[in-house]
From TrEMBL:
Molecular function as annotated in GO: histidine-tRNA ligase activity
Any one annotated GO CC term: cytoplasm
EC class of the enzyme, as a word: ligase
Chain ranges of the Class II Histidinyl-tRNA synthetase (HisRS)-like catalytic core domain: 71-390
Catalytic activity: tRNA(His) + L-histidine + ATP = L-histidyl-tRNA(His) + AMP + diphosphate + H(+)
Protein name: histidine--tRNA ligase
One GO BP: histidyl-tRNA aminoacylation
Keywords from the UniProt entry: Signal
Signal peptide, first to last residue: 1-19
Binding, L-histidine: D138, V139, T140, R179, Q193, D197, R341, Y345, Y346
EC number, as in UniProt: 6.1.1.21
Pfam annotation, one family: tRNA-synt_His
Length: 533
């Protein structure tokens, strides 16, 4: 009789071997710590879950949940760099930053605007007082509620004091968002989202500025219009398209179901798209015609051939493309009738950014106009009546940058001032062992710490190394950490005085400096040495 336990062990071993020999799917839960910014696809691994077994406390990393993101130090460097660029572009365009908590009342995210799928994806629960709370799934409902509360005289004095004047039109934030959805390619259950909104402006100038912001951001990473395309559409084009095909555009429920199918146009195969349309009453010929119209309308001229050139939405799109032409960004844009956006609150122009070289990749960013968010009679406040914005998550864009490895194509890119090399953990490593030996005695410790403080005042990252009493180990650490200089303080055996030996990591040169001359140590640590001394 075959031993069942033995067979089970063999099956597990075969599964593990197969998993290890095959490439990981793109939708892995987390990434291996990279040796350089935006690492390659093949260096990724999944962490946190033992595959092939049910998730229990025994085989799941308890510091995270399935689909949640976490980052080791090298990964966090690239995340901080990304957030720095988000903030830099926002401030360059005059946007003001705000912040809201990730926890809010669940009712806020269950308005009539939100589609059923998004409601079902909420991380919601009851607190000890029975209040229904939820983790933020979308920034827009929370942002608009904040604006309305402030405009209508909220009693929350702290919140009011932190807000900008009512005249403020341009807002941005980097917010943590959570959705209980199946993790996959470019999809996690939580992501950081860069969100920019312009409120109170009814004209196309707001859309032009937001799209130009996206182009500016992409260019910072040496991406061009050959790499990324901004797919542009208008919500009204969908109804016009249905009228053209003789479909019930005035049936709101039918249109809702149709737009759900259209939103998946780039995410499913042509056969799946046709099957989904057949459920809504499309014949194979009608499905084929719809696909032909979508693929044949990529410019304003194409739109004018299919729809009336005088149609309001055609004129709206025409003005935006013209504005982008003035901004020298029109080559990034293509008209795409399949772009509808998943949320019901969009009312006008909608757009999504895609990788031109990977058409099955999820959108890098997306947004659109959402006028009258609170309804036609919800408010008479101009600032709350007109709004347009976009969001960009930290998952798809990092996937794209890792594939392109563009961070190292631009030597000028740095995380922040004072970092001499991409990915450096420290600029200067100072050897300060905790044990005895040639460690400077107590009379010299004040001089040593004064020197360290001066290095930090120069804007340098200084790492005190006291893991072992061996200075050679400290020097090895400095080389691996990407430091530019290594400082070895020790007591001179002849004079009995404090002496600094400053190593230039790159040139392998070193200089000896008297302990009382801390300024020279700082000078040599900040600039390369010219010769051995």
């Amino acid at each position: 009789m075959i031993n069942i336990r033995l067979c089970s062990c063999l099956l597990v071993a075969i599964s593990v071997a197969s998993f290890q020999s095959s490439p990981r799917p793109r939708g892995c839960a987390a990434f291996k710590s990279p040796s350089r910014l935006f690492m390659t696809e093949n260096s990724r691994i999944s962490r946190g879950v033992v595959y092939g077994k049910p998730e229990t406390a025994d085989n799941v990393a308890l510091h995270t949940v399935r689909g949640g993101q976490y980052f080791l130090p090298a990964e966090q460097l690239e995340q901080r760099h990304l957030q720095h660029e988000w903030s830099s572009v926002s401030h360059a365009y005059g946007f003001s930053e705000y912040s809201l908590g990730v926890l809010a009342y669940a009712e806020l995210f269950k308005s009539n605007h939100d589609v059923t799928e998004h409601r079902n994806e909420l991380y919601s629960f009851s607190d000890r007082k029975g209040r229904r709370l939820a983790l933020r799934g979308d920034v827009t409902p929370q942002f608009m509620a904040m604006l309305r509360s402030h405009r209508e005289g909220s009693s929350d004095c702290v919140l009011k004091a932190s807000l900008s004047p009512p005249q403020l039109s341009k807002w941005f934030t980097v917010a943590d968002c959570w959705r209980y959805e199946r993790p996959g390619h470019c999809r996690r259950r939580n992501h950081l989202q860069w969100t920019c909104d312009i409120v109170g402006i009814p004209g196309e100038a707001a859309e032009v500025e937001l799209l130009t912001m996206l182009v500016t951001f992409f260019r910072k990473y040496d991406l061009s219009s050959d790499d990324v395309a901004i797919h542009l559409n208008h919500r009204q084009s969908t109804a016009a398209l249905m009228n053209l095909l003789g479909k019930p555009a005035d049936d709101s429920q039918w249109m809702y179901e149709f737009m759900k199918v259209m939103d998946k146009y780039r995410k499913i195969s042509k056969e799946e798209f046709t099957d989904s349309l057949s459920v809504l009453g499309f014949t194979p010929a009608e499905s084929e015609r719809l696909s032909d119209i979508i693929s044949g309308c990529t410019t304003i001229a194409d739109l004018e051939k299919v729809f009336s050139p005088n149609a309001a939405f055609v004129d709206n799109l025409r003005n935006i493309v013209a504005g982008l032409k003035y901004a020298k960004s029109h080559d990034w844009v293509t008209i795409d009738l399949s772009i509808v956006r998943g949320n019901d609150y969009y009312t006008g122009v909608v757009f999504e950014c895609f990788d031109r070289h990977n058409h099955m990749r999820r959108a890098i960013a997306g947004g659109g106009r959402y006028d009258n968010y609170f309804g036609p009679s919800g408010t008479t406040d101009r600032q709350l009546s007109y709004a347009v914005g976009f969001g960009m998550g930290n998952v798809a864009i990092v996937e794209l940058l890792r594939d392109r490895l563009v961070a190292y194509a631009s030597p000028g890119l740095t995380f922040c001032r004072g970092i001499k090399e991409q990915g450096a953990y420290a600029d200067v490593v100072v050897f300060t062992p905790a044990s005895d030996g040639d460690r400077p005695g107590l009379p010299y410790m004040q001089s040593l710490y004064t020197m360290i403080d001066r290095l930090r005042q120069r804007g340098l990252k200084v790492y005190q190394y006291y893991k072992t009493p061996k200075w050679q180990k400290a020097l090895e650490f400095a080389e691996k950490a990407g430091a530019g200089s290594f400082v070895h303080p020790h007591v001179d055996a002849t004079t009995g005085k404090l002496t600094y030996q400053v190593h230039d990591i790159r040139s392998k040169k070193k200089v000896t400096v008297p302990g009382e001359d801390a300024d020279k140590v700082v000078e040599f640590a900040c600039t390369p040495t010219d010769a051995d001394t």
